[in-house]
Give the backbone structure.
Amino acid sequence: MKPKVKRIVNENNDFQRIEVIKRNREKRTKYQEFFVEGVKSINYAVEHDWKIRSFLYTKEKPLSDWAKGILKNSTADSHLELSLKLMEKLSDKEEEASELIAVITMAENDLSRIKIKEDLLILVFDRPSNHGNLGTLIRSCEALKVDGLIITGHAADLYDPKTIRASMGTFFAVPTIRLPSHHELTPWFAQLRGELTAFQIIGSTAKTDHLVEEVDFTRPTVLLIGNETFGLSNNYKEICEDFCRIPMYGKSTSFNVSCAASIILYEIDRQRRKVDSIK
């Protein structure tokens, strides 16, 4: 079924809904939709079969072959043709408006989206406060074979345009779940422990003597990362079986949280590649 085409020449209800989805977290949650622009992000969304409600574009400027191809093969519910002025008002690009903007349906907030397997690797980020850190960490998760990212507590909005932009589109490739607290994870961790041999929960903290390379990360692992300012909460520390830290030799006392997590994820991948090369 072809998408319905609708022309928008003024700031009508359709335009106002999209504009408020872009800037208002509560409205995004209410409508279960979010705002996406950028070639990489839209390509990732299409490749990973996210439900696209609408594509927005203007016919006042020629569309590239890429944009024409996206629209030709679109399975969106609707295509909205906007005036150039309205596209420029919505777009965050500085020099000129994006060719395409997408409104996409949020994914189900269900742990079943994470596929359970013998070499499972899950990252839990507790109370991330910075959209850039969150988006950057999603990029590292996609690059370093993380099976799922779980965000807990009061956190930066996963669906904020700043988060998605920082992820460079990898947002759509990494199953990411939002949960209120560690309480919702406890029974799931118990389930994983029953299903996976040698399952472990490891916390990242500077307050340990155990260096990251000393932990056996070839086992199925949940890695816990704390808030940028306060680190791991006591609730999470209590469920960790071990802790690790990254060696530091300068005067700095800590890494940026996304940087620290990326270093640990690389060490996990290094250990696993080494074992695979021996097999």
Q: What stands out?
A: The chain has a mean pLDDT of 94. The first helix runs from residue 13 to 23.
